[in-house]
Write a structure and sequence with these properties.
This is Haloacid dehalogenase-like hydrolase domain-containing protein 3. With 134 residues, the protein is α/β, with parallel strands linked by helices. The chain has 6 helices and 6 strands. The strands form 3 sheets. Strands 1-2 form a two-stranded antiparallel sheet. Strands 3-4 form a two-stranded parallel ribbon. A two-stranded parallel sheet has the order 5-6. Strand 5, helix 5 and strand 6 form a beta-alpha-beta unit. The chain is globular.
C-alpha cells in the first residue's frame, strides 16, 4: 500500500509518494521468511517505476497490474493471475486491500482470504506478524 503525499498532478514523481512507517522492514522480513508478496493493483504501468524509485520493487515476487493484464479488481482473473505467478493455491493466499468490493469481495470470490487495511490489519507489522506467525 502506497500513500499519496502530494497532489495528483505530481503522481509521476517518486517524491510524491512514500512508504508508511514499517513498510520496508516488514516487506524485507516477509521476503526473507520466504513469503511471496505479489502486488495486485488497479494502478497503471507507472507503478513499476514508482516501486523501483522507492527502492522496494526487489522485495516483491511479482506485480500484477490491471493495465497490463487486461482486467482489474474485483475481477477474479486478476487474483488468479497472482496465484499463478506465486504458484500458490487460493486457500493458502491472503490478499491485503482497502476496498470492500474490489479487494475483499474480489479475492473471496475465488477462495482467497482478504484482510482489510484499517479493519483487519492496521500496520505493516500486523501483516508481517500474522503471516509469519500463523
Amino acid at each position: 500500500m502506497i500513500i499519496l503525499k502530494k497532489s495528483i498532478s505530481t503522481m509521476q514523481m517518486a517524491e510524491a509518494w512514500y512508504l508508511p512507517d514499517g513498510a520496508y522492514e516488514a516487506l524485507y522480513l516477509l521476503k526473507d521468511a520466504g513469503v511471496k508478496v505479489v502486488v495486485v493493483s488497479n494502478f497503471d504501468t507507472r507503478l513499476r517505476k514508482l516501486l523501483k524509485d522507492l527502492n522496494v520493487i526487489e522485495l516483491f515476487h511479482s506485480l500484477i497490474i490491471s493495465s497490463e493484464v487486461g482486467y482489474e479488481k474485483p475481477d477474479p482473473k486478476i487474483f488468479e493471475a497472482a496465484l499463478v505467478e506465486a504458484s500458490v493455491e487460493a486457500g493458502k493466499a491472503v490478499h491485503v486491500g482497502d476496498d470492500l468490493k474490489a479487494d475483499k469481495q474480489g479475492a473471496n470470490a475465488i477462495g482467497i482470504d482478504c484482510w482489510l487495511w484499517g479493519a483487519d490489519v492496521k500496520t505493516f507489522s500486523d501483516i508481517k506478524n500474522r503471516l509469519i506467525h500463523e
